[in-house]
Amino acid sequence: MFAYLVRRIAYGFVTVLGVLMLLFVLFFAIADPDDIARKAVGERASAEVYEQWKKNHGYDKPLIVNTDHGAAEFARYTDTLFFDHYRRMLTFDFGRSDADDSPIAGRILAGAVPSLSLTVPLFVIGLGVGVFFALLVAFFRDTYVDRSVLVLCMLAMSIASLIYIIGGQYLIGMLLRWFPISGFDPDPTVAYRFLALPVLIGVVSGFGADVRLYRTVFLEETNRDYVRTARAKGCGDIRVMTAHVLRNALIPILTNVVLAIPFLFTGALLLESFFGIPGLGSLTVEAIHGNDFSTLRTMVYIGALLFILGQILTDVSYTLADPRVRLR
Amino acid sequence: MPWISNIAVLVLVALGFLGWRTIRRNRLWSEALRALWRRRRISLVIIAVYVVIALLDSIAWVGGTVSGDVSDAVAAFKPRSIIDRIIAPEAFKELSYSAPFAEAGFYDDAPLNHPGAHVLGTDILGQDVLYRALKGVRVALLIGGLTSLIVIPIALAFGVAAGYFGGRIDDVVFFVMSTLASVPSLLLLIALIMVLGIGTVQVCVALGVTGWVGFCRLSRGETLKLREADYVQAARALGVSHAGIILRHILPNLAHLIVITFALQFTGLVLAETILSYLGIGLDGSWGQMIDQARDELSRDPIVWWNLAAASCALFTLVLCVNLCADAMRDILDPRTRREEQ
Question: B338 exposed, middle or buried (CB, 10 Å; 0-12, 13-18, 19+)?
Fold first, then answer.
């Protein structure tokens, strides 16, 4: 178990290095630092301002090889953008925003709480609703209930998330006036009023795909031998579904839950910016509009980091959910 | 550059014809196609209509008389597609909003240039909404179709090579895959477009880079299984070359996966574009852009709904039809479900 954990974490770390390589190619090799600096200071800025800006934002070094140092010197390869990029990202020193010079780490910490207060309820409720309906549909398989829910899912899957958000905001926020249209409050006793609508819309927009997927998982399990055994020994339908099928279907569901984590992130991007929640999604949208490459880079890095972490956790939690899985 | 899109139309039509002939000669595939036609007749017809509209909109040339304002004289020097020539948007416009089939302007009650002729009304600039929705068809098919056509061969090449040869190649491909897969796709997409710039080719490349991983993983896993199959072992024992085995035994057995993934990828791409449009990095003239522009129109009083409705219905219909076909294809082609039917 311990050896497995070490190996798994080591591979995760190598993947992080790979992600950093990708970010370097994108944000330093393809997007020219000179262009970024020129855009940030403006066309008319003097050479000193331009150089100072590059220095402040850590863009003032050569890409991979620093020819200021001799061939034998170690600094030839460490005093470069490439090395700096790795060093700073791995030590979580994210520097300052390209757009307004504010420290990025502080903004990310400030955005984490509103983001989590949206995505965690969304995630839990979405999972609960999806699993519940999928169990229901699997229970009534090959009947009209099953077929009509499947048609409903297919229809729901074909609607763009943007339309769910616009439509939901208009219908519930503006016509019915159940919840405020947008906004956020750090006080939890008030925040739930602001969060209810985005969570509802998020759950509805993920409903179709989730139910279809979980249904397939459950149906695969209901065809297994142990289900027949359970029935033969006199288990009721409901008990078979909840005590036997659901527990065994946990493994594939667990995999899907982790696959859904980046979607959670992306879904929150739209929801946050539509409903004025000052989280990481809004931060990303601001970064896009403000040509803020350093913030964007950091967000991609953090997103990937969270995903890799989630993957390791899933692999480990397999052992808890399934005694058949042995870690080597 | 209208000639590129004209040549693309020719190539696509030729490819379509060749594909049709190949399918007709292959018993398995012609039966599958017939079964699909039996089950999803309406969806297939609707998709065909979309394709025809997109092809008509892709054939463009310069010249011909432009009827309309003097200010649109410039339009005479721009290539205009067949759709442009049929609807003639330069002349077929109003001053601002008008409701579907309206006889007068929506807010000012001024008489319209073409009373009752705008089936889906007009937008804030007085452009016909039906025309804009039709123009969106080409963009949607371009995003979904072109990207898939680029991505699938690349993903297939890497996936099959990794699965078949294993060893060092597999390690490299698997590492690249897991690296790309660990970046949340929307963030990667945004980063790519921000770095590459906004444009049809750039957006397609960005969508391709984020989209190939899933299919690559699928084809790698499937090839790993097929490599151990008895007929592949037999072929190898008989001295068939690696290229021969891949072409004759592995690729045909991946074909059903390719078809299903193509359809699912297509809908995913078209839906992803709407998000990009909202973020301001989408394609010009797409339905996503129409939806994005129509966002504020819901808060007008009285509300302007036809812009949003036209774009979302056009999008919804296309995605639904492709989804339905993909679903039916999976049932028809997947040997596991077929066995249960017998």
Answer: exposed
Per cent of chain B over pLDDT 70 is 93
Inter-chain touch B179–A163, beta carbons under 8 Å = no
Report the C-alpha gap between A279 and A114 in whole angstroms: 5
Domain match, B299 and B169 both: yes
List CB contacts of A293: < 8 A, sequence separation 6 or more.
Answer: A27, A31, A36, A98, A287, B194
Residue A156 amino acid letter: A
Q: Determine whether the interchain pair A291/B320 forms a contact, defined as Cβ–Cβ distance below 8 Å.
A: no
Which pTM value belongs to this model?
Answer: 0.87
- Angle, helices B147-165 vs B200-227, to 10°: value is 30
Question: What is the rounded CA–CA span in Å between residue B328 and residue B341?
Answer: 14
Model ipTM value: 0.84
Measure CB to CB from residue B194 to each of A22, A157, A296 and give the nearest one: A296
Q: Are residues B213 and B326 in the same domain?
A: yes
The shortest CB-CB distance from B279 to any of A27, A285, A311 is to A285
For residue A129, name the pLDDT band (cuts at 50, 70, 90).
very high
Architecture of the domain defined by A112-293: Orthogonal Bundle (1.10)
Q: Do B145 and B276 reside in the same domain of the chain?
A: yes
